[in-house]
Specification:
Layout lengths: L2 H19 L6 E4 L5 H9 L8 E6 L3 E2 L5 E2 L6 H9 L3 E7 L16 E5 L4 H10 L4 E4 L17 E6 L8 H9 L4 E4 L1 E2 L3 E7 L5 E5 L7
Parallel strand pairs: 1-2, 2-5, 5-11
Antiparallel strand pairs: 3-4, 4-10, 6-8, 6-9, 7-8, 11-12
Helix pairs in contact: 1-2
The protein binds ribulose-5-phosphate.
Ribulose-5-phosphate (5RP) binds next to α3.
């Protein structure tokens, strides 16, 4: 799979998402993080918009299920991305074809759901996650960039917890159990946020998907 093809798919999805979801009236646009929303920013830069409130927010995803539940946080920015999503009236996902699961989360994204934790609680949370049925749960390491764990923008750590493939009707339930654990700040499950997804396909077409979600604002 060529990098060029993947980048083309990301750009296609991002441009289509902006073209169909941003109007010319005065509005603040929310943008998450990742390599796909870079193209959202590029397209937004071509439009003329003044800012009043977050009407629509755009973000990438690590995996998208058929209900538009998401796994996010591959780049450890899940808390701030969820903050933006929760402040938006409309949340739109942009992604290339590798992110669209045939059905369930955990199909392609095998690294586990990212969970932001308070640093002094991570050992406890790791144990809690195994009790909740995780196949694996590991503290994310910063890798070559620096010695030690990844530290988020909020000064916290990230645990990646693999629960296998998660049935569509179980994502919310699992998310609620995770968020109740003492030490957990936020999870990378985005349930009932995305109402639209734009997927750039390998053949240059775009798949757009819509679901209804409860109103946030
Ligand atoms: O959740 C994220 C960062 O925490 C990103 O949105 C997600 O990892 C997708 O990134 P990309 O568009 O680069 O594939």
């Amino acid at each position: 799979m060529s990098e060029e093809l993947i980048e083309k798919s990301k750009k296609l999805a991002a441009f289509a998402a902006v073209n169909e979801n941003v109007s010319k009236s005065d509005r603040i646009i929310g943008v998450g993080s990742g390599s796909t929303v870079v193209y959202v920013a590029e397209r937004l830069g071509q439009l003329e918009n003044k800012e009043k409130f977050i009407y629509v927010a755009f973000d990438g995803a690590d995996e998208i299920d058929t209900n538009l539940n998401l796994i996010k946080g591959g780049g450890a920015a899940l808390y701030q991305e969820k903050l933006v999503a929760s402040l938006s009236r409309k949340f739109v996902v942009v992604a290339d074809f590798r992110k669209q699961s045939p059905e369930r989360l955990g199909h392609f994204w095998r690294k586990g759901v990212p969970i932001e934790v308070v640093p002094n609680s991570y050992v406890k949370v790791l144990k809690d996650l195994f009790k909740l049925g995780a196949n694996s749960a590991t503290l994310r390491d910063a890798g070559k960039a620096k010695a030690g764990p990844v530290v988020t923008d909020n000064g916290n750590f990230v645990i990646d917890a693999d629960f296998g493939e998660i049935p569509l009707n179980k994502v919310k339930e699992l998310d609620e159990k995770l968020i109740r654990l003492v030490g957990v700040v936020e999870t990378g499950f985005f349930v009932d946020y995305a109402e639209k997804a734009y997927i750039g396909n390998e053949d240059g077409s775009i798949t757009s998907l819509s679901v209804s979600v409860p109103a946030r604002l």
